[in-house]
Recover the amino acids of this structure.
């Protein structure tokens, strides 16, 4: 399944940089992770469209003080402009989304700075 292969690819790339990976297979698990007060540097969300779960997760992420500098990237979205407009309608700052991953080969440009930061 393409989503599974993408997940495996991203996890391997992140682990090779010596970074920890927390995997949530659904939004309930993702919210549970937020409530454990883990400080995340990077969140990659595989979404095709805005749903109630996405809105709740992003709102909760914003409320977490220890995640104030988290980078949020979206994969699986075919219309980023529409996605950002929907965020506005939900009263979520579009700036909360750092970017969209259309090409997973660019994952290194996201991970390498985090790797350097964690070793400092």
């Amino acid at each position: 399944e393409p989503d599974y292969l993408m997940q495996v690819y991203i996890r391997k790339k992140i682990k090779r940089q010596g970074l920890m990976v927390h995997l949530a297979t659904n939004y309930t698990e993702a919210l549970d992770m937020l409530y454990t007060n883990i400080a995340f540097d990077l969140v990659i969300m595989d979404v095709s469209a805005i749903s109630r779960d996405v809105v709740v997760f992003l709102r909760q992420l914003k409320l977490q003080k220890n995640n104030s500098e988290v980078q949020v990237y979206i994969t699986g979205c075919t219309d980023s402009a529409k996605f950002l407009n929907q965020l506005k309608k939900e009263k979520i700052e579009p700036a909360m989304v750092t970017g969209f991953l259309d090409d997973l080969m660019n994952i290194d440009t996201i991970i390498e700075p985090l790797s350097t930061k964690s070793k400092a």
User: Anything to note?
Assistant: The helical segments are 2-16, 27-35, 52-63, 80-89, 107-119.
